[in-house]
Write a structure and sequence with these properties.
The complex is a heterodimer. By secondary structure, chain A is mainly β. Chain A has 1 helix and 12 strands, in the order ββββββββαββββ. In chain A, the strands form 2 sheets. In chain A, strands 1, 2, 3, 4, 7, 8, 9, 10 and 11 form a 9-stranded mixed β-sheet that branches. Chain A has a two-stranded antiparallel sheet with strand order 5-6. In chain A, β5 (about 110) and β6 (about 120) form a beta hairpin. By secondary structure, chain B is mainly beta. Chain B has a single domain, classed as Aromatic compound dioxygenase (Protocatechuate 3,4-Dioxygenase, subunit A), CATH 2.60.130. The chains are: A mainly beta, B mainly beta. Chains A and B meet through β2, β5, β7 and β12 of A and β1, α1, β4, β11 and α2 of B. The structure holds fe (iii) ion. Fe (iii) ion binds near residues 154, 157 and 159 of chain B.
């Protein structure tokens, strides 16, 4: 009896990136609700100083109906504007029956951009869901930040649609940004 | 540093008419292409010390020390996580989730009338080693019906979620099985325009991964976006 040779690896070596596929409706098997709280006592940011905030909003579809099965992820700098500092700026949150998400985190500082330009404080958002064959990426900015006016990404967005990226304060420390996947007030999504 | 953009045809569109759930969820406005910044070229450091791995989804021990074993055909899946230049990504977190052998998810939203397996949760997490290799053992999932169109069934698949070295490399995808007669009928698989790119979503049976007397082996490599040439190189 001879031993068959192992089949060739299907895609080892240089080649195009693997195709994205939808997370589908059952991704909650990898949902760890604690991850929505970046300041959880047993998490990576326990004890990191900064301004504690919540980021919340609702995700709706082209009919204005809630998206109750989305995986929302955030990635942000720490209060020092760094991604490689003490603050670990990753969170994941499942939307609820009303399409709502909520993160507890620290407000990010301005992030160094191209050249010596600083980007306004912002949070990257990626949305995965049934019906999304690849993630939708956008950013959340904070209303009233002086740097917003010169931020390279915000400046590239038509004035009429800029508000879809800017969270508004509700009460002290609570920021809201709703996300519309499709329709009249559709969120500006980014190709990064 | 930045990541290069996809080879045309190798990624699915947002608007895929045959996949009903895209109809109301795809943006109608064009995406705004931005220059990647630190926000896109940095990524969460998710390390095994803080996020424990599960290398066997098919078998384990309860807190009380009792052994359990999932129903179904045991398989081992191994592969490498590379970038488009063939460079391995060490220490990458790979999350996996799947239906049980009967085609049912351990998920409150799954109402498919197939048996749940109390010994199978269908979720795990592994990390790549220094050469980019990952490996886990599970059971072969079952196909399951969905309501996309009349008599619609998803081909057998395992969901994957990967973190690279940049948030722009983040990838969620699905691994399929060779010879599945449902593949040509599936709107999710066929949303990828390029046939070769679709084929790369199909694992290969691999006797070298197969564990004697234990589990059939499958090889599934995953490629994340590679680094773009610096803009300077394109200038005359
Ligand atoms: Fe699935």
């Amino acid at each position: 009896m001879t031993t068959p040779a192992p089949v060739a690896a299907p895609n080892s070596g240089p080649g195009p990136a693997t195709a994205s596929q939808t997370a589908g409706p059952y991704w909650h098997l990898i949902d760890f609700p604690a991850w929505a709280d970046l300041l959880r006592p047993d998490g990576p940011n326990a004890g990191v100083a900064g301004e504690r905030i919540t980021l919340a909003g609702h995700i709706t579809d082209g009919d204005g109906a809630p998206c109750p099965d989305a995986m929302v992820e955030i990635w942000q700098a720490g209060p020092d504007g760094r991604y490689d500092g003490d603050f670990h700026g990753f969170g994941r949150c499942a939307t609820d029956a009303a399409g709502g998400f909520r993160f507890t985190t620290l407000k990010p500082g301005p992030v160094r951009g191209q050249g010596n330009v600083f980007q306004a404080p912002h949070v990257a958002i990626a949305i995965f869901a049934r019906g999304l064959l690849k993630q939708l990426v956008t950013r959340l900015y904070f209303a009233g930040e002086a740097l917003n006016d010169q931020d390279p990404v915000l400046s590239a967005v038509a004035l009429a649609r800029r508000a879809t990226l800017i969270a508004q304060p509700e009460e002290a420390g609570h920021w809201r940004l709703d996300i519309r996947l499709q329709g009249g007030d559709e969120t500006v999504f980014l190709e990064v | 540093m930045s990541f290069r953009h996809p080879v045309p045809g190798t990624q699915p569109p947002y608007d895929a008419p045959d996949y009903g759930s895209t109809h109301k969820r795809h943006p109608r406005q064009p995406l705004l292409r931005i220059d990647q910044t630190l926000t896109e070229t940095s990524a969460p450091r998710l390390r095994e010390a803080a996020y424990p791995a599960t290398t066997n989804l098919a078998k384990g021990r309860t807190r009380e020390g009792l052994g359990w074993e999932a129903q179904g055909e045991r398989i081992t899946v191994a592969g490498r996580v590379l970038d488009e230049d063939g460079r391995p990504l060490p220490g990458a977190m790979v999350e996996i989730w799947q239906a049980n052998a009967a085609g049912r998810y351990n998920h409150p939203g799954d109402t498919h009338d197939a048996p749940l397996d109390p010994n199978f949760r269908g979720e795990g997490r592994v990390f790549t080693d220094a050469e980019g290799w990952y490996r886990y053992t599970t059971i072969r999932p079952g196909a399951y019906p969905w309501r996309n169109h009349h008599n619609a069934w998803r081909p057998v698949h395992i969901h994957y979620s990967l973190f690279g070295a940049g948030f722009a490399q983040r990838l969620v995808t699905q691994m399929y099985f060779p010879g599945d007669p449902l593949l040509p009928l599936d709107p999710v698989f066929n949303s990828v325009p390029d046939a070769a790119a679709r084929d790369r979503l199909v694992a290969a049976f691999d006797l070298a991964v197969t564990q004697p007397e234990v589990a059939l082996g499958y090889r599934f490599d995953i490629v994340l976006r590679g680094h773009a040439a610096t803009p300077m190189e394109h200038r005359p």
